[in-house]
Amino acid sequence: MRLANNMKYKVTHTTKYDYDAPVPVCHNVVYLTPRTTNVQSCSRHRLTVNPTPTTHSKRIDYFGNAVSSFSIATSHRLLQITASSSVTIQPRQLPSEGSTLAWESIRNSLATERSAEGLATYQFAFPSPHVPFHPELSDYARESFKPGLPILEAIRSLNERLHADVKYDPKATTISTPIIEVFEHRRGVCQDQAHLMLGCLRALGLAARYVSGYVRTQPAGESPRLVGGDASHAWVSVYCGSAGWIDVDPTNDSFPQTEHITVAWGRDFSDVCPVAGMFIGGGNHQLDVSVDVMAIE
Questions:
Q1: Which of 50, 96, 151, 291 could bridge to 103 as Cys pair (CB 3.0-4.6 Å)?
Q2: Based on the structure, what is the number of domains in the chain?
Q3: Both 146 and 60 in a single domain?
Q4: Model-level pTM?
Q5: 70, 125: one domain
Q6: Boundaries of domain holding 265
Q7: Same domain as 114, residue 79
Q8: Is 2 part of a structural domain of the chain?
Q9: pLDDT tens string for the chain (297 positions)?
Q10: Do the domain assignments include residue 52?
Q11: Which CATH number covers residue 250?
Q12: Are 186 and 247 members of one domain?
């Protein structure tokens, strides 16, 4: 299979909070810096906050994500956070489905591997705040994960079914909607579909992590438009044994190549919320988020 060329992007993510009363103080944590991985590099990143923060710090979190924290101790009615990044992505080369190990073999090895790398992988096989265990998800997943099936073949089947069964509907859920409710109503957004897939995979004992990032909505050529580009996007990465971690996007029924930009990963959305924080005062407020992913020739 002929691989696509490397892609370079300029990404601009702007978040605005418009308050109807003064906010004397706020504290915020943001995950907006694209990761550097074996297929992705971030050559430039700039975070601009208005009003100017009173304090600002950076750190690397438990999962290796870049985190920025800031506080504003001056009264304001408008908070604007803009992250600008330049990213280069290499095509991901998928192994043939038949060359990957049977999914049970990978599940069984996870429970016995005690190296640092093995334990770091195994932590993603357990329930998390937004992805509790539900037997219904195990039953659903087993329709794709037949005994002895190569893991990549099973993942493809599950991805296709979730994409077909769960309608993308921005009005159907909120951040606090339980995944079992999403499963029952079969409606939600990319975050919900990613959480559902995580719930299915972990219910079988497999390791899978939540990935937060961006997706280019107008791929080159005649490829179909991808959903999720008007805000942060979410998908899943599954541990496939010797094949490593393989990304899969149930919202768009795809295996990411060069159109997905990884920002952060964790157990679920609660680990990598793009912008989170607290404030005093402010009354009611209006939130506006815009994301522009521009390919650089």
A1: 151
A2: 2
A3: no
A4: 0.93
A5: no
A6: 97-270
A7: no
A8: no
A9: 445 689 999 999 999 999 999 999 999 999 999 999 999 999 999 999 999 999 999 999 999 999 999 999 999 999 999 999 999 999 988 999 999 999 999 999 998 988 999 999 999 999 999 999 999 999 999 999 999 999 999 999 999 999 999 999 999 999 999 999 999 999 999 999 999 999 999 999 999 999 999 998 765 556 665 555 557 899 999 999 999 999 999 999 999 999 999 999 999 999 999 999 999 998 999 999 999 998 887
A10: yes
A11: 3.10.620.30
A12: yes
Other C-beta atoms closer than 10 Å to the C-beta of 296 total 10
- Pair 134, 213 in one domain: yes
Which residues make beta-bridge pairs with 235?
211
CATH number at residue 45: 2.60.40.2250
Q: Are residues 176 and 284 in the same domain?
A: no
